[in-house]
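During the reporting period the student researcher (J.K.) took over the structure-prediction task from the postdoctoral fellow and processed the backlog of single-chain submissions. One of the processed entries is reproduced below for the supervisory committee.
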Amino acid sequence: MKLRIHGNSLRLRLEDSEVAQLRNTGLCSHTLQFGDGARLTYRLETSSLVTAMDAEYRQDCIRIVIPLDLAHEWAESDQPSLSLHRTAGGPSLLIEKDLQCLHRGDKSVEHDGVENDLADPRR
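J.K. obtained the following structure tokens:
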């Protein structure tokens, strides 16, 4: 899972295996370690207790929560992203499936991207 912070927005990009993990376990999490023992954890999780996507920051952890039904629907669909745009009261959120590149450049780099239907000229 890749985290991008830009201005007052957060973007998470999940590889295919991470989308499956989120669907099956309700959680995908990664930690960035710093040399002095400090760390930043970022996690995406599902909950049946929330009705809308939201984000919070507590104890060195960025936590993004998605309603359980919405997460399952998104994981099973061809929909590439979920988004929440805000002008105040917290960051805007974008959760994306990490689509495979349309050009097939370096075959030596392993990538677990979600299949990109746009790459199929028959579609």
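The committee noted the following: The mean pLDDT is 87.
J.K. will present the remaining backlog at the next meeting.
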